[in-house]
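Example 3.2
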Amino acid sequence: MKQRVYYGALALLVLLGCLPFLDSSYALRIGTFACMYAIMSVSWTVIGGFTGYPSFATAAFFGLGAYCGGVLINKGWPLFAAAGAAGVVAFAGALALGLVLLRLRGHYFAIASLAVAEVLRELTNTATELTGGGMGLNIPVSVTGSSSVMGEASFFFWAMWALLLLTFIVVRLIQESKLGFGLVCIKQNESAADMIGVNATIYKSLAFAFSGVFVAMAGALYAAWVHYIEPPDVFDVLFAVKPIVMALLGGLGSPAGALLGAFAFLGIEEAVWRNYLQIHSGVLGLLVVVLLLFLPDGMMSISKRLSQLGGRRG
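Structure, written as C-alpha cells:
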C-alpha cells in the first residue's frame, strides 16, 4: 500500500507540472499555493511524523525565510541566491534553537515552538530600518525578468514546483537513511534510542533544521511572488497549524501522504471558500475535525477500509 501511495504522489506531481499548459493564471495561482502548502507539510513530517515532536514552528520558518529573502532581494541579490541564503539561515537558526527547545517534550515543546514565531514577529516589527516594521516590506516587481502576467505566474509556479520536488526527494532520502532510522527510534522510545547509541539531541536538532530549511526557501519565493509582505501575513499562526492538519489528512509519518494531504486540504479549503465565504473558517474547521475523526490514519484509512471490505466479501 505504501508503494501505491508513493506512486500516486509522484503521478500527482507530474500532473501538477502540466498546469502551465492550461494557460490559466487562476490555475497557476492555485498550483503555486498547492506546492507551497505541500512543502510545509512534507517538511513538517521530518520533525512531527518521523520524530514525533509536535512542532508549531513552521510559521516561524516561513516568515523568517520571507523576510530574509525579501531583504536580500532589495539589496540586489538574485532571487534564487536570496532563497538559498534564507534556507541556510533557517537551517542554522533551527539547528541552534533545536539544541535548546528539543530538551522539552510534549505540549511544553509545542508551546515553545509556537512562541518562536511570535518572537520573530516582534523582532520584525521593531527592526523598521531593515524590515519596514509594521508598514511591511516591498519587493521589486521585476525579479523574474518577465513583463507579462502569465510569464511571471509560470515562473513562480515552476520555482515552487521544483522546490517541492527537491523537498520530497530530500525528505524521502532522510526517511531511508541512518538519520531517519534514528528519528523513528526516538519516536518509539527516546530513552532506549540513547542506550543503543543514537545521539537524540543531535538527531532531533537535525530533524528540526530540515523541517525548516525548505519552508524558509518557500517563504522567500512567496515574498518575491506577492511583492509585498508584512508580519501578520507571513508569521500567521495558520501556517503553523495547516501543515499538521495536512500531514494528518495524508497519513502521519509518510512524505507521500503529507504531499497528498496538502493537495486534498487545499481542494477542501478552496471549495469551502467559494461556497461559504462568510463562515468558511468555521466550516473548514468542522470538516477537518470530522475527517480526522473518521479517518484516523488520514486518506490511508480509505485504502485499509476498502481492503477490509474486499476481504470480507471474498
